[in-house]
Amino acid sequence: MKNKSPSTCEGCGKRIRFIRKSLKLSQEDFAKLAGSSKSSISGYEAEKFPVPGNIITNIYKKTGFRPDWILLGDPDGDAAGSQKSETVFKINS
Questions:
Q1: pLDDT-derived band of residue 9, with 50, 70 and 90 as boundaries?
Q2: pTM
């Protein structure tokens, strides 16, 4: 069983990894985009510690992936609404 702090959201790490991989970024490049460090991104993805709100906000501002989806997931499977494909195109262009 993983040692996680009580405030770590279940599945946040998987969703952050999904965002990073969908943008085809390394942890280092994604850390720069999010205003974080590579080791922190690694820790968030492994759900070793909670993702600070400012990092979630930065991810949203730079990628369009909604904070509520990062924190809670989406039962409808819509990761970021209509902004996602447009934002991914801009970042990868």
A1: confident
A2: 0.74
